[in-house]
DNA sequence: TGTTAGCACTCTTAATGCTTGACTGCTAAT
DNA sequence: ATTAGCAGTCAAGCATTAAGAGTGCTAACA
C-alpha cells in the first residue's frame, strides 16, 4: 500500500526530528514546529495510522512516536533529502586520500578514517577480493642461507613477509630456477586455484617440491591469519559521543559486536543485493547486530567486479543524510583510485 | 617508616579481598574471614593507622577501607604472593607463540594476544627499537617501469611496501648499481643517522640522487606514519567484563585514553626505571591515565639493550598476581625468541 | 600497653508515595 | 476531513522513611 503524501511528509518529519533531538516526537511538536496549518489532533490520527502500518512505535501509551526499523529503511531509500558535503569536507577527503596510497590496505585505512571522521560514527570495511585476486608475479629474495622472503604481487595487493624455508644446499641459481618455475605455474591464478593445484614433479623438478609446498603453506597461513583481520575498523570510540549510548549494557553490547568482528563480518558479507546503499538495523531481522543500531554499507567495484564493502555502524537514530553523503563520496574516490592503479 | 608485620599482613588482606570482591573491606570481614584470633576493634585501630599513613582511604565515614595508589604499589613490590601459571596456561602461551613468528611485529601481536587472553585485561605494547635499529640490507625490486619496491632488512625488523619512484629511463643495470651504492651507504646505520646523512654526489653518481632522496622520503614517511601505530593494543573490549566499569563515564574515559593512543604512548615511554615490573596508577601522579586505573608494564631487552615495553591496562583493582605472572612469562619467551633470531 | 566489648553516630541504599507534566485517544462540534 | 476539549495514562522527579553497614570512641580488662 502506498502512503499518502501527507503521511510521507509526517513520517519524514518524525525521523528527522527524532534524529535531531533524540526525543520521541509528539503531535504537538509536529504541528507547531513543522506543520502550522494543521492541528495536533489531525496529526494524531495520522500518527496513529502510521503506527498501525508499522512505521512508528510508542515507548508507552503517553509518549511520542519513535521510528521503527521499517521507517528508517523507507527514510533512507525514499524520504530523506540528500545532503551535499561542504567544500571543507570535500577538501578533507582529498587531503587524506593524498597520503601514501600505493598499497590497497592503505587506501582502505584512509577510507575508514575519512568515513569515521566525517560521519562521526564507527567505520568498517571488508575486502572481498582476497579469494578472487590473481597473482601477477612471485619473487624470492634470499637473505639467510636457509630462508627466503616470498614477495607476491597480485592484481590489487602486495603480500609480503611470508618467509619460507629453503634447503641450505640450494644454490642461488637453483633458487632462481625454482622461482621461474613457480612463477610460471602460479601466474594468473587465484589463491583458491593454487591451493587445489595438483602438480606432477618429474625428476628434474623434484628439488622444487619443498619450496612449492612451503609457498603453498605460506599462502594458506596468510589466508587463515588474515581471515579475521579482513574486517577493518576505525573510530571505535566514536560511539561514545552519541547520547543514544547512555547505559552501560548498550555500550557493552555494541563494543562486543564491534571488537569481536566475526559477527560483523558475517553480516557484512552475507546478502549483497546490488543496492548502492544498504541499511541493516539491529533487532527485526538482524539479531546479530547490537539492539537499536544500524549498519549502513556500500560496495565498491573495479571494472564491474565487486571488491569489497565499507560502511558505518552506529545508533539507528543516526545522521543518515551525512552518512550516505560520505559513503557515496568516498566510494567514488576509492573506485577511481583502484581503477587508476590497474 | 617501616610497617609492622601485622600492618603489612592487614594491608595485604585488604588489597587481596578488595581485588577479589570489589567491596570496601571492613574490620569485621578481616577479623572473621582472615584473622579469627584478633577482634574487629583491634583491626579498626590498625586500619585507622594505615589510613593515617596514606595506604587506605574511605569513600565515606561509614564505609570500609579501599587501598590507595600507594597501597597497590607496595602490594605489587612487597606484599603480594607471587602466582605461578598453570600447566594449561603455559601450554596456551607456547601454542600461540608457535604461530608464525618470523616477523617481529607478529611476535608482538602474539604477545599481546596472550597477555590479554590470560590476564583478562587490555594489553599494550610499544616498540622502542625503531630509532636505534640498524639497517642490514636494502634491496630494490622494480615492478613497473617507473616504480620500485624498497625492501629494507634491519637487525630486528623488515620494512616493506615502501614504494619509490624511479626515473623511467633508468635501466635495470643502473638500478642495480644505485642499489649497491645506497646499500653501501646505509649499511649498519640507524634511521636517524641516515636522515642526517650529507652526501656529495659527484658526477658519476648524480643519477642516484633522485633515488636517494626518494628512499629517504620513504623512510621518513614510514616513521611518521608508524609513529602512532608504534603503540599496539589488543583486547580493548576486555575492560567491559570488569565490574569496576559500571558507569558510562568511566568507560568513556578509559576507552578514550586507550583508543587515542598518544597519551598512553607518552606514559609508556616516559620514565623507564630499570624495574622489572612497573606499576603506574591513574590519579596521583599519572593524570593522563584514566581515573582509578592501573598500567602495569615490563620491558624486554635483547643482548642487554632495551627494545620495548609491554603491559596491561585495567582497573586499579586488578588481579596483579595473575598479571605479573603473565608478564614475566611472556617476557621470558619474547626475549628468547628475539635472541634466537639474532 | 595492647586488646576488647559496647554504644552512639554517620552515611548509603532501597522502597514508598506524591505531584507534575507530557502525551494520547476519543468524542462531539464545525 | 478537521478541530477543540477533555479524560486517562504513564514517566520522572522529589521527599520521606526505614534498614543496615561500618566506624570511632570510651571504658574496662589482661
Would you mind describing this structure in some detail?
Two copies of one chain form a homodimer. By secondary structure, chain A is an alpha+beta fold. Chain A has twelve helices and ten strands. In chain A, the strands form three sheets. Chain A has a five-stranded antiparallel β-sheet with strand order 7-3-10-9-8, sandwiched between helices. In chain A, strands 4-5-6 form a three-stranded antiparallel β-sheet, covered by helices on one side. In chain A, strands 1-2 form a two-stranded antiparallel sheet. In chain A, helix 5 packs antiparallel against helix 6. The model of chain A has no long low-confidence stretch (mean pLDDT 84). Chains A and B meet through strand 4, strand 5, strand 6 and helix 10 of A and strand 4, strand 5, strand 6 and helix 10 of B. Chain A binds a DNA duplex (30 and 30 nucleotides) through helix 3.
Helix amount of chain A, in percent? 40-55%
Give me the side-by-side strand order of the main sheet of chain A. Answer: 7-3-10-9-8
Mean of pLDDT of chain A? 84
Q: State Rg of chain A.
A: 26 Å
Give unreliable regions of chain A as ranges.
none
- The helix-and-strand class of chain A reads alpha+beta
**Largest interface, with Cβ-Cβ < 8 Å?**
A-B, 30 and 30 residues
Strand content of chain A: 15-25%
Written as H for each helix and E for each strand, in order along the chain, the element string of chain A is HHHEEHHHEEEEHHHEHHEEEH
